Amino acid sequence: MANPKYTVEEVTFDSEPYLEMAVRVNGRRFHIDCRPSDLRKPGQSAPSKFELEMRSLCRRIDDSCVDDAAMESAEGSFHDTEFDSEQSGDESAVEEFMEDSCEDPKCGEDPLETWVLRPFLEQSIFNTFAPKASKPLLSTLHDCIHTPTLSFTLEVANERLTPIQVPTKAKIRDWYSKPADISSSRFWRECPVVKPENIPLLDKAHPQNRNLVIFQGKKCWFKPAYNDMANTVYEREVDTLRRIERAGLYGKIRVPRLNALVVSQVENSIHGMLLDHVSATGSLWDRRNHARVGLRKRWYDEVAQMLRLLHAADIVWGDVKPENMLLDEQDDIWLIDFGGGFTHGWIDSEKMETKEGDLQGLAKFKGFLKLK
Fold first, then answer.
1. 6 or 313, higher pLDDT
2. What CATH number labels 176-276?
3. Where in the chain is CATH 3.30.200?
4. Which residues of the chain does CATH 1.10.510.10 include?
5. Smallest Cα–Cα separation from 270: which of 224, 201, 221, 233?
């Protein structure tokens, strides 16, 4: 039986390391969590080969996210995890897995995601719990927010990595919900509000990506409000985007416009926000090594000019780094993520959410682009 189409929606890492992943399959959402320590045989102190594989893949992802010139550690990294590669003798099992993964036509994720999903595909978990015949009609954002959710963890059984179903916690079912009154800011009160049942999906025939929706006749991006993130993140993003609009900066800087908040009045919950959709064509991480010097200089000048305009309006971006920049079809940069915070190696913690911090991140960005 062929494996069903699936979409990896969210991946969250913690420093243990600990992975949470949300995967959408045929109108069902699979919540997967996995810790390397759970992959050890009961009563045994020595790590299993699966534990060593996961730790090694976590280290590889961590290393790939660290710019050797600008960053010593990354937010959410696994540098603090003790792991002795000599415990496994070598990493031949991981190397073999990496080679096999690259040949897998369904391997669109990074190696760790592929490693986690492989037992779900090989053991027909998705086909069993979300058969195509059971696919519900998903036509609105409300349908996607309230998608039936199944929870799984990974354990070692019969010498293989095995998905184990566990009860779904209320927090996981309400992944995209926060109290609607999380902020009393006047900017929140000024923001239009729309019910999720009034937001149609862009493509109802293939609703794998519930982020793309239609609002007031145009394509928008639904940015969820995750219940496990601090309220201040959403308060700051909404406030900042509204201040950008009030300052008349839309059209002068490339920032997705905030169109509305998605709020359920019955549940008294905010589920997220609707932003202008940006047709992103690539990642700066992928492009910087192949882009000509003139294009890299243009990128730097664009970000520097947009920062100048923001600061002139007394607005701070807050987390300057390449991951918060999108490239559109014209190779122009768009700034995203105004929730604040900082990333180690880019902005010092004491400069978080200040103009000085923005300028420090800008200087790091220049080095990232390999410009003198």
1. 313
2. 3.30.200
3. 176-276
4. 284-368
5. 224
Q: Which of 144, 143, 167, 152 is nearest to 120 (CA)?
A: 152
CA distances from 308 to 3, 301, 312, 320, 362 (A): 50, 10, 6, 13, 11
Task: Write down the residue that tokens 């190779």 correspond to.
Answer: 331
Domain 284-368 has CATH 1.10.510.10: yes
User: Do residues 160 and 119 make contact, with C-beta atoms less than 8 angstroms apart?
Assistant: yes
Report d(CA 90, CA 25) in Å as an integer: 36
What stretches of the chain adopt beta strand conformation (E)? Answer: 7-14, 18-25, 28-34, 149-157, 160-166, 178-179, 193-194, 212-215, 218-224, 258-264, 269-276, 325-327, 333-335
Q: What are the phi and psi torsion angles at 246 (to 5°)? A: -65, -30
Virtual CA dihedral for 287, 290, 295, 301, nearest 10 degrees?
50
Strands 333-335 and 325-327: what pairing? Answer: antiparallel
Q: What is the pLDDT of residues 51-97, one digit of tens each?
A: 888 888 887 765 554 443 333 333 333 333 233 333 333 344 444 44
Do residues 357 and 342 make contact, with C-beta atoms less than 8 angstroms apart?
yes
Tokens of 58: 């976590």
Token pair for 195:
């019910």
Amino acid identity of residue 26, one-letter, is N
Reduced to 3 states (helix: H, G, I; strand: E, B; else coil), residue 90 is coil
Q: With a cut of 50, say whether residue 358 has pLDDT above it.
A: yes
Rg, the chain, Cα only: 22
- Which residue has better confidence, 357 or 76? 357
DSSP SS3 for 106: coil
Whether 275 and 223 have beta carbons less than 8 Å apart is answered as yes
Dist CA 63 CA 58 (whole Å):
9
CA distance 331 to 334: 10
Report the C-alpha gap between 31 and 24 in whole angstroms.
9
